[in-house]
Write a structure and sequence with these properties.
Length: 87
């Protein structure tokens, strides 16, 4: 299982993958049928602001992510990043 404090610090340095807010925390998202008591690998982390992170845990995975189109989230995330670079 991939574990890396440096990688988690990198993820925490990024804006929220959902709303673009900062600061963020690395959220370990579960994919597939993993056990609820087993933390997913650090490679399954995404940056979430405190508000989105709290909402994700309160609503659960299906309800929270059902409100978002993953393709649009990627496009919006990349667009925000490029704008910070002046592109």
């Amino acid at each position: 299982t991939f574990r890396s404090k440096a990688y988690l610090a990198f993820i925490a340095s990024l804006p929220c993958a959902v709303c673009g807010a900062e600061p963020t925390v690395p959220h370990h998202e579960r994919f597939g049928k993993g056990g609820t008591g087993i933390k997913p690998p650090d490679s399954h982390c995404i940056p979430l602001c405190f508000g989105c992170h709290t909402q994700r845990h309160a609503e659960g995975v299906e309800t929270f992510w059902a409100a978002f189109d993953p393709k649009m989230l990627c496009i919006e995330y990349l667009t925000r990043h490029l704008e910070t670079k002046g592109l």
